[in-house]
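User: Can you predict the 3D structure for this chain?
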Amino acid sequence: MATIILLCGLPGSGKTTLAQRIGHERPALRLGEDDWMVQLFGSTTGHGEAQRDAIKQVQWQIAIQVAQLGRDVMLDWGFWSRAEREDYRGRAAALGLRTELRFLDVPLAELIHRLEWRIRDLRPTSFPVSETELRQWWETFEPPTADELEP
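Assistant: Here is the predicted structure, written as structure tokens:
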């Protein structure tokens, strides 16, 4: 049975790097919001909740189709809230699909350091993130609890 992998973590935590590694280990399609923000909307900041919501709707439909064809899918979205994680897990379960939560637990100081380096070598589908933004997001981020991380 195919699995939909939810990649959970803040910017700089290594979600995309993990997705690339998983993609080499097993055939899996990676769907990322940031890639589409650049390609569809020409975003240079990554901001735009309406656009991100639209991207997630389309990517979710693609994820379902690919998983139903028997291939794993990675959703590189961050999944910052428990409610969002539960929502997508419930949607997948209702369709008979498995989910796997991969949490990248990185201390704030390390995230700040990584994002400083990222700005110096910014990829075309990455966005600069300021320390101020990261600190604000750190305060609202809901790390998964032990019960969420159990298989």
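The mean pLDDT is 91. Residues 93 and 134 are 32 Å apart (CA to CA).
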